[in-house]
Amino acid sequence: MSHPAREREGPAPRPRGRGALFALLGFLALACAGFAGLGIWQVQRLAWKRDLIERVEARVHAPPAPAPGPREWPRIGAAAHEYLRVRLDGRYLDGRDTRVQAVTELGPGFWLLTPLRTREGSVVLVNRGFVPPDWRGAKAPRGETQVVGLLRLSEPGGGFLRRNDPARGRWYSRDVRAIAAARGLDPQRVAPYFVDAERAPGAAAAAPPVGGLTVVRFRNNHLSYAVTWFVLAAMAAAAAYVLRDERRRRARTR
């Protein structure tokens, strides 16, 4: 008696949606790891920013040091020099003032920059302070002058979404190299930084140019960013846990 041929048994078919579930779990795992990594990076940035703020605060209130000379110029950088309190001794160069557009706590107006030739023969641009738009004040002090202020790095390119226009005398940033060229100064002898002068002792509070208006402020949102990334990582982990638990519950009820 013949028997019908038995069909070969193949592998049990996968439940529908199982592959998609695994893919979703993998995506959530990657998302959790990525969000956690970003959170850790923001914590590291927070430590760096706090250290920077502490160093700058120490510089701003330290006794003034001699301004870096030509030998130090190639090494000028934000990490070691920005907002360093310095002292300059020399003479202002008359007739070479530059007005740079500014908005301060005193309102809109200009920064008044004047080159100062030091005793060693180099030239440093000094931001003597804020002047209102209609100011027609006196020239820079004559004779030997001492300036105390904060070292600032050059601001090339422009500002306020506008580019500097030296030909028309329109300046929107304190671009040391461009200002020096426009004023006929030897670029090899001009420092790659400028100095925000402090208000002279005994000077009237509102007498232009008003120095000492440098805003030393750093945005420090790294803690909130870190919390956000860690919350997103926790949400991704929670979603993965819920999906996995739901899959196990359904498998037990079959």
Automatic annotation (TrEMBL):
<keyword id="KW-1133">Transmembrane helix</keyword>
<keyword id="KW-0812">Transmembrane</keyword>
<comment type="similarity">
    <text>Belongs to the SURF1 family.</text>
</comment>
<feature type="transmembrane region" description="Helical">
    <location>
        <begin position="223"/>
        <end position="243"/>
    </location>
</feature>
<feature type="transmembrane region" description="Helical">
    <location>
        <begin position="21"/>
        <end position="41"/>
    </location>
</feature>
<keyword id="KW-1003">Cell membrane</keyword>
<keyword id="KW-0472">Membrane</keyword>
<protein>
    <recommendedName>
        <fullName>SURF1-like protein</fullName>
    </recommendedName>
</protein>
<dbReference type="InterPro" id="IPR045214">
    <property type="entry name" value="Surf1/Surf4"/>
</dbReference>
<dbReference type="InterPro" id="IPR002994">
    <property type="entry name" value="Surf1/Shy1"/>
</dbReference>
<dbReference type="GO" id="GO:0005886">
    <property type="term" value="C:plasma membrane"/>
</dbReference>
<dbReference type="Pfam" id="PF02104">
    <property type="entry name" value="SURF1"/>
</dbReference>
